[in-house]
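Input.
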Amino acid sequence: MQVLPDRLPRLPVTFNGYLGSFMLLLSLLLVTLTASDTFAHGVSDGDKAYIVQNTGMQLLPFIYLGAKHMVTGYDHLLFLLGVIFFLYRLRDVGAYVTLFAVGHSVTLIYGVLSGTHVNPFIVDAIIGLSVVYKALDNLGAFKRILGFQPNTKAAVLVFGFFHGFGLATKLQEFTLSPEGLIPNILAFNVGVELGQLLALSAILILMGFWRRTEAFRHHAFAANTALMTAGFVLMGFQITGYFTK
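Output.
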């Protein structure tokens, strides 16, 4: 089972539990409030200048750019955290992460090569929604409200499509040369996967230590509530940006 809906709400939470949960929520909100546009919604001026000035096939720069965006992309990392939160077997982690990778790879490559432009604020708002959805899924909210459990793997794949369009909007900020375009896009996608692997490894290591403590059972419910709140904050930022910019 990926979630523990019947057990989480009844877990005892001590004062220290509330304090730990509050600190986790504060940390997540601090990340969302202080992360710069360079990390969340664009590419740094230095990276832009380097890529634009160098035409043709530039595999290593695009691999670096893809890895950097994923490692510093807190919206993607929050979603991955929600996806693997209750996954204990590496086989299950691999299955879900592969679905996510397939989803964002398809729309990343399609979005850039087809010239399909989507509003970055709308896409990033949906990415924030994906964080909210996964937190609610972990809390067992859908089964209690709807009476059945939606297909989690299908949801991860679908939201992967939107994350891919979010990645595509970053590349569309460049004036990409037709020369070497396909290799460069593939290199960017390889970088994204490498960055995802690095970030996921760090998350799994930290989660492994946390799961061995009693604190995990006490704080799991509050942690997903914090995750959901962070997703709502991300959505709020993007919706505000859509109407004000």
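The radius of gyration is 19 Å.
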